[in-house]
Design brief:
281 residues, alpha/beta, 5-stranded parallel sheet, 4-stranded parallel sheet, globular
C-alpha cells in the first residue's frame, strides 16, 4: 500500500449550474497509511447523481480545507460517512464547520457508526438526517467526471459483490449478498484501468465467495462459487489485475485456494470470531 498521501495547494474544481451536494470523506484515523478509494461516499453520491443532483466529492486525505469551505458555502446539502472512533470526530468537525459557514445547509451522516449508533448521532444539533442502512446504491458504478477525480489517486478499491448474510457478532457488515454480474465487472474494471493505468486492486466485498442470492421476485438462486471465481479470474487475467480480498475461511479448501491464486489473488483476509468451540457455541 502507498504511504500516507501528501496534500498540495489545489485549485477548486468548478461546479457548473450550482452545487446541490458535497460528499465528504473524513480522515479514517490519525495515522493510517492506507489510501483506498472512498467508496462509502462515492456510492451514495452516485445515488444523488442518479436523482438529478450535482455532486462534488472531497477526501480529507488529499484535498484542501479551502476546497471544502468553498463548496460548503455554495452547496445545499453535505454528507459524511464514518466508522466509530476517530473518523466520527473528524466527521463532527466537518459538519459543525459546515453549519457555521452555511447555516442553511442540510447535513447527512451515513456509514457504520450511523447504522449502529443512529439514535446517538441523531441527537447531535448539527445533524439533520441519519442514514441507518448498511449501504446505499452499491449496485451502481460511481464513475462520473466528478467521481473520477477520486479514482485517479491512492490504492484502488472495488466491489465484485456486496453484503454477507452471516451474523458474526464481531462484524458490522451483515446484509443480503448481491453479486455483481460478471459482464458489469468486466466493463467497469476496464474503464477504471483505462483511466488510471492500475494493475492492483483491493476487492472490499465482505465475502467474495458466497453462493446464494435472490432475484427481483425474491426467488433463491444458488451460484457455484468455483465457477464464479473462474469467470472472475478470466476477466482479471485478461485485464492484468492482481488483487486482495475477503472470504469466509470454511470456503477455502485446496481447490479454491489454487483457484484464487490462478485468478490473481495475492492476499486474502479471514474474519475470525474465536478459535475456541466453547465461545462459538
Amino acid at each position: 500500500m502507498n504511504a500516507a498521501p501528501i496534500k498540495f495547494q489545489q485549485k477548486v474544481p468548478a461546479i457548473n449550474n450550482g452545487l446541490d451536494v458535497v460528499m465528504a470523506y473524513p480522515l479514517p484515523t490519525t495515522d493510517s497509511p492506507f489510501s483506498l478509494t472512498p467508496l462509502s461516499v462515492l456510492y451514495p453520491g452516485k445515488m444523488w447523481e442518479d436523482d438529478g443532483k450535482s455532486v462534488a466529492y472531497w477526501d480529507a486525505r488529499w484535498d484542501s480545507q479551502e476546497m471544502l469551505d468553498d463548496w460548503i458555502k455554495e452547496a445545499k446539502e453535505i454528507g459524511v460517512s464514518c466508522f466509530t472512533g476517530a473518523q466520527c470526530s473528524y466527521a463532527s468537525d466537518i459538519l459543525q464547520r459546515a453549519k457555521q459557514l452555511n447555516p442553511k445547509i442540510i447535513t447527512h451522516v451515513g456509514g457504520h457508526h450511523a447504522q449502529h449508533c443512529g439514535d446517538d448521532v441523531a441527537k447531535e444539533p448539527f445533524v439533520d438526517h441519519v442514514w441507518r442502512e448498511r449501504s446505499y446504491h452499491e449496485h451502481a458504478f460511481p464513475f462520473s467526471p466528478a467521481a473520477q477525480r477520486l479514482w485517479k489517486r491512492g490504492d484502488l478499491q472495488y466491489m465484485t459483490s456486496n453484503g454477507c448474510p452471516y451474523g458474526c457478532t464481531f462484524c458490522a457488515l451483515r446484509s443480503p449478498w448481491k453479486p455483481r454480474p460478471l459482464e458489469q465487472i468486466e466493463r467497469e474494471l476496464a474503464e477504471i484501468c483505462e483511466l488510471t493505468g492500475a494493475t492492483e486492486f483491493s476487492f472490499s466485498d465482505p465475502n467474495i465467495g458466497f453462493d446464494r442470492t435472490r432475484d427481483g421476485l425474491g426467488t433463491n438462486i444458488c451460484i457455484d462459487r468455483i465457477e464464479r471465481m473462474k469467470g472472475l479470474g478470466r476477466i482479471l487475467r485478461a485485464i492484468g489485475i492482481k488483487w486482495d480480498g475477503n472470504v469466509r475461511s470454511d470456503y477455502v479448501d485446496q481447490e479454491y485456494a489454487d483457484l484464487l491464486e490462478w485468478a490473481g489473488c495475492t492476499s486474502i483476509e479471514f474474519g475470525l470470531e474465536s478459535g475456541d468451540e466453547w465461545f462459538l457455541h
